[in-house]
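residues and backbone:
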Amino acid sequence: MDGKTLARLGAVIFVAIAVTATAIEITRQDEPPANSATPMVAPSAPDPLREGQRRCQRLGEYGARDAECLRVWAESRDRFLGLDRKQPPTAPQAASSATPKTIPSPDRPRR
């Protein structure tokens, strides 16, 4: 068999497979889902934080200078991070009174 005949045979097989797959897909019927009833979700209570975020969003660039928006964004950030607003932030540990070690620079020779 030469290459030209082999290429034609491959093309015919490819077309036959494509036609068969198309015919199967067309004749296939979709099955309805087992539970077609959608559960009803009760409306939740309005969230004042969300309303504040929407207000700040409508303010646009001015929201970055608005004190209420800064408070809303800080509260939103704290809620996202899981921080408790009632506890004051902890101060970092004070550095020890020992003098820091000097690190020699690479261009100076060591003594």
Helices lie at 3-27, 48-59, 67-81. Residues 3-27 form the longest helix (25 residues). Residues 47-85 form one domain. The chain has a mean pLDDT of 80.
